[in-house]
């Protein structure tokens, strides 16, 4: 598609009066791209019909431009770019814009050249046709998908093809696709140009960026040379050209390409297109020529009657006046492929909504200096709200990482920031439970300290019990480090504190279990095992068990430490502030080491299960370890499958659940006896078995 070439130039104008009024006030230009022969391809007439239908539809609506009426002017470019350009000043003569051609607001429904996306060079240009940049990316991936790494790339000598081929060569490199050759051929294909093109075709896969008429000339010559087996990749300009497939279907077998987006239906359009009668078209050169060619007749008094001359035209019978488009097939009335026509329909509505926005503008809140608004009946060309590069544009500007588009997609607004906060219900509940767990642990510590001289407390290794309660209180408080806005220092404290606190707890339990086993072995005759596992050795075992975890955490912090991160990948409208583990290996090593300690503790408690009950703390440790395993085994899949603040909440829940499991399984039975059954807290009762 050439930059401004047009088979028809459609000129949508705003009138103060009714449609058809001669007084031209303000206008918006819509460029219609070059098409081939008018009566070979009814699409051009369909485009015109779609535009007039859209204008008629808008003028009949009460909710859109109720106080304004739209009209239009159409000029014929005669399938020639210079003629199209010469027609443009006819529209501008009343606007004093001939010396400033790019101040008028233009809307194209067929210009796909990526060059037009440059808002600095074309600040007043808009389109309802996607830029070639999107098509090119898709074509490069398509060629790569089929493993075609050696392709020919050709195109008509135009900005459309030049920019498209340039983009394709840049994009294809990323997919390992090489261009066997690139070639531009003239719009008017001479025999010499065709021979040159076909002689250099060294690849079986050829991508062609051209219009339908150029492709038709190439296929004719290919058929004459009897060349077969070519794999064509079609640009959108000819991918759905019905005429090509009808004439050269055998040469185009297997052709791939991307088409312009199709609308399923435009309500009322088919009825509008087929309602044409001879009486409606006598003064329209396009429609008259189309009518005569479609029904092979001659319209008396039409504008074409003076321009056809002699020959076959004069041999035709006069049109009867009873002809109907309902009785024949024509691309003009075929609404099953609403592609270009749909773009025209959207373009007209784009203009209408822009004018409606002008009408709705409130003084003092307008987009111009001092908040002024434009008068929709007397607006200046530079005031038209079309163009705006952020409103209804197909070349969207990407929002920054911390913003996302609003519902109208014309403004970037801040994303919602998400993290587990102290101010939300879930954060408050977890905080309360964490503090409550720490308070219960310290309360039990106070009870044990108060009754430290009683047989029950002394028999269950008083010092290790005190240490375990302190470590459990720390575990509960570690949960608070997971609540609040993440920062680098908080993330680097959070995970090591979690790993070390639980290593201390499990190491302490491991020591308590070992003491139980040693104590009963020492009662055997001649056994002196307890002297090898006295208080000093118990403290050393706790420190040793924790030291391994400390080393893992130090390696983690020195190599790839946890850090705060703004995650924008999970949800487009939300920034998830999270702590990233840095090294996944170290994170799972911390969890794995806690699991190893827990397994050792469980195994030793299991071995001590048959010892006398009143002395035996092992069965409670066994139950606590079973709860511990259940919590953390459940934690892993849930942790991996959640995101954002819910991942953090799952982690805190696992910490609290496992800590409460240890606390209640080990210390609740003892507290029950100390407080509610003091008669059982005696040496006699303990020594019964």
UniProtKB/TrEMBL annotation:
The chain crosses the membrane at residues 425-451, 463-483, 495-520, 540-559, 585-608, 620-640, 652-675. One of its GO terms (molecular function) is G protein-coupled receptor activity. GO terms for cellular component: plasma membrane. It is a multi-pass membrane protein. Its main location: membrane. Keywords: Cell membrane, G-protein coupled receptor, Glycoprotein, Membrane, Receptor, Signal, Transducer, Transmembrane, Transmembrane helix. InterPro entries: ANF_lig-bd_rcpt (IPR001828), GPCR_3_C (IPR017978), GPCR_3_Ca_sens_rcpt-rel (IPR000068), GPCR_3_CS (IPR017979), Peripla_BP_I (IPR028082). It is found in: Cell membrane. It comes from the Eukaryota. The lineage of its organism: Eukaryota, Metazoa, Chordata, Craniata, Vertebrata. Residues 426-689 form the G-protein coupled receptors family 3 profile domain. This is G-protein coupled receptors family 3 profile domain-containing protein. Residues 1-23 form the signal peptide.
């Amino acid at each position: 598609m050439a930059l401004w070439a047009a088979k028809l130039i459609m000129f949508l104008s705003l009138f103060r009066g009714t449609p058809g009024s001669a007084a031209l006030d303000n206008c918006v230009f819509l460029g219609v791209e070059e098409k081939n022969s008018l009566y070979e391809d009814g699409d051009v007439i369909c485009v015109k019909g779609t535009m007039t239908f859209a204008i008629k539809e808008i003028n009949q609506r009460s909710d859109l431009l109720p106080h304004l009426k739209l009209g239009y002017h159409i000029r014929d470019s005669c399938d020639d770019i210079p003629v199209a350009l010469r027609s443009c000043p006819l529209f501008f003569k009343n606007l004093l814009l001939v010396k400033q051609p790019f101040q008028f607001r233009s809307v194209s429904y067929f210009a796909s050249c990526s060059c037009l996306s440059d808002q600095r060079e074309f600040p007043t240009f808009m389109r309802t046709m996607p830029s070639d940049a999107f098509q090119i990316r898709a074509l490069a991936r398509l060629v790569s998908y089929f493993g075609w790494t050696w392709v020919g790339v050709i195109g008509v000598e135009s900005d459309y093809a030049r920019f498209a081929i340039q983009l394709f060569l840049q994009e294809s490199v990323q997919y390992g696709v090489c261009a066997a050759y690139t070639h531009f051929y003239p719009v008017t294909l001479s025999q010499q140009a065709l021979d040159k093109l076909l002689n250099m075709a060294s690849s079986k896969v050829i991508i062609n960026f051209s219009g339908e008429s150029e492709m038709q000339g190439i296929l004719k010559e290919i058929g004459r040379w009897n060349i077969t087996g070519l794999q064509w990749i079609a640009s959108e300009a000819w991918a759905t050209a019905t005429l090509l497939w009808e004439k050269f279907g055998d040469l185009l077998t297997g052709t791939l390409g991307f088409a312009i987006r199709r609308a399923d239906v435009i309500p009322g359009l088919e009825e509008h297109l087929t309602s044409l009668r001879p009486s409606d078209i006598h003064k329209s050169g396009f429609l008259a020529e189309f009518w005569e060619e479609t029904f092979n007749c001659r319209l008396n008094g039409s504008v074409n009657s003076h321009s056809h001359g002699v020959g076959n035209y004069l041999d035709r019978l006069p049109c009867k006046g009873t002809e109907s488009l309902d009785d024949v097939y024509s691309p003009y009335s075929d609404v099953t492929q609403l592609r270009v026509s749909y773009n025209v329909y959207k373009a007209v509505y784009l203009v209408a909504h822009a004018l409606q926005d002008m009408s709705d503008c409130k003084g003092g809140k307008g987009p111009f200096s001092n908040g002024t608004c434009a008068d929709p009946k007397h607006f200046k060309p530079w005031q038209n709200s079309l163009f705006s590069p952020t409103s209804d544009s197909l070349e969207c500007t990407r929002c920054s990482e911390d913003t996302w588009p609003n519902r109208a997609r014309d403004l970037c607004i801040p994303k919602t920031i998400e993290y587990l906060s102290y101010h939300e219900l879930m954060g408050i509940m977890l905080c309360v439970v964490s503090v409550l767990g720490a308070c219960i642990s310290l309360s039990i510590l106070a009870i044990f300290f108060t009754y430290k001289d009683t047989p029950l407390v002394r028999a269950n290794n008083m010092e290790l019990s005190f240490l375990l309660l302190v470590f459990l209180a720390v575990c509960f408080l570690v949960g608070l480090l997971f609540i609040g806005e993440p920062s680098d220092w908080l993330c680097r404290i959070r995970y090591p504190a979690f790993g070390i606190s639980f290593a201390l707890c499990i190491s302490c339990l491991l020591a308590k279990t070992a003491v139980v086993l040693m104590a009963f072995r020492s009662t055997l005759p001649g056994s002196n095992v307890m002297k090898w596992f006295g208080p000093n050795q118990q403290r050393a075992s706790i420190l040793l068990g924790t030291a391994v975890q400390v080393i893992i955490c130090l390696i983690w912090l020195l190599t790839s430490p946890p850090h705060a991160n703004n995650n924008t990948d999970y949800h487009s409208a939300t920034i998830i502030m999270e702590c990233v583990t840095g090294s996944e290996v170290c994170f799972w090593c911390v969890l794995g080491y806690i699991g190893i300690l827990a397994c050792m503790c469980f195994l030793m408690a299991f071995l001590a299960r048959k010892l006398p009950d009143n002395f035996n703390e092992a069965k409670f440790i066994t139950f606590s370890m079973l709860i511990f395993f259940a919590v953390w085994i459940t934690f892993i899949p849930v942790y991996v499958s959640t995101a954002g603040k819910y991942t953090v909440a799952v982690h805190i829940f696992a910490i609290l659940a496992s800590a409460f499991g240890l606390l209640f399984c080990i210390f609740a039975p003892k507290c029950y006896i100390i407080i509610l059954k003091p008669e059982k807290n005696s040496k006699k009762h303990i020594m019964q078995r």
